[in-house]
Design brief:
Structural class: alpha/beta
Number of domains: 2
CATH superfamily of the largest domain: NAD(P)-binding Rossmann-like Domain
Number of helices: 11
Number of strands: 12
CATH topology of the largest domain: Rossmann fold
Radius of gyration: 20 Å
Strand order of the largest sheet: 1-10-7-6-5-2-3-4
Largest sheet: 8 strands, parallel
Distance between the termini: 43 Å
Shape: globular
Order of helices and strands: EEHEEHEHEHEHEEHEEHEHHHH
Helix content: 25-40%
CATH class of the largest domain: Alpha Beta
CATH architecture of the largest domain: 3-Layer(aba) Sandwich
Length: 310
């Protein structure tokens, strides 16, 4: 049940439901995990959050049951899993314990929603060598073999990457120096990803679902930088770097395999539009948020308030 059509982000409020067994959220204090918790709470779903450190529970919203556990110590998950109706699995550990963790999930819960990557999508952007994709594929095989009811969520490029990649340059000037300005992606809003995850955790009809999530439009990296400038109300220029210059600039700041993977992916997609799907609309009933909307809602990441609308 792969959703790979076209369209368009702005999830409406999730439907409320009668409280049932709690949903266990792993990666609960991270960007996606925390947003999933907010979505579940908004829908009236009891939430149990897995944290490695007890003190992290202080950052969780009221009403969330915090439990301590570690994916690298599978036995530590038993208490968190007991009585859980579904689990959101965001893998944040080395792969060694994945098999034992999945066995425990299958023994305690009927539904697993796994945050993976679009490694099965034929578009060349997603077909470059990628250690994370290999890890995700292995966990997917384990989940399938365990026989647990599952849904796989595959976000494409996150819109939030723009703040990490280009935010520092935009905050201090008007030029973003980056490679492959013509490479096109379809940035997906983190909030849309979290809304889809939450909906598939508590709504029936998503067993076996395999959802590739993207934003509504294919945009080159240079166009994305231009959009940032328009939203902020000042010009921001894209200045092309060669792959060699990019490697030199990121030396010691980013793992070399990640840099090489990104360069290969951007290069592979030159001359063709990004892969765009309708999965967000299919699951939520509303179109995905645009990249411009993401920038406007996160303008502080670029050091400026958005330009006033005319």
């Amino acid at each position: 049940m792969t959703r790979t059509d076209l369209p368009a982000a702005d999830p409406s409020s999730p439907p409320t439901r009668t409280p049932g067994p709690p949903v266990l959220v792993t990666g609960a204090t991270g960007r996606i995990g925390r947003a999933v918790i907010d979505q579940l709470l908004g829908a009236g779903v009891p939430v149990r959050a897995l944290t490695r450190r007890p003190e992290a529970a202080a950052t969780l919203p009221p009403g969330v049951e915090a439990v301590t556990g570690d994916l690298t110590v599978p036995a530590s998950l038993d208490g968190a899993l007991r009585g859980a109706g579904a689990v959101f699995l965001l893998w944040t550990a080395p792969p060694a314990t994945a098999e034992a963790v999945v066995e425990r999930l299958a023994a305690h819960t009927r539904r697993v929603v796994f945050l993976s990557s679009p490694h099965r999508t034929p578009h060349p952007f997603f077909q470059q060598p990628n250690p994370m994709a290999e890890l995700h594929a292995g966990i997917e095989r384990l989940i399938a073999a365990a026989g647990v009811e599952s849904t796989v969520i595959r976000p494409g490029m996150f819109a939030s990457n723009s703040s990490a990649w280009w935010g520092p340059a935009v905050r201090t000037g008007d030029v973003v120096r980056w490679p492959y300005g013509a490479a096109e992606t379809a940035p997906v809003d983190d909030r849309d990803v979290a809304a889809v995850v939450a909906r598939t955790l508590y709504q029936d009809g998503h067993a076996g679902g395999d959802y590739v999530l993207t934003g509504p439009e294919s945009l080159s990296q240079a166009e994305q930088v231009e959009i940032i400038g328009k939203v902020l109300g000042r010009p921001v220029r894209f200045s092309e770097l060669s792959p060699e210059e990019f490697r030199a600039r990121t030396e010691g700041k980013a793992p070399r395999p990640v840099v090489d993977m990104l360069l290969a992916a951007w290069c592979a997609t030159l001359g063709r539009p990004a892969h765009v799907t309708s999965a967000v609309s299919d699951v939520l009933g509303v179109p995905p948020r645009t990249f411009s909307r993401w920038v406007a809602d996160h303008a502080g990441a670029f050091g400026h308030a958005p330009a006033p609308s005319s």
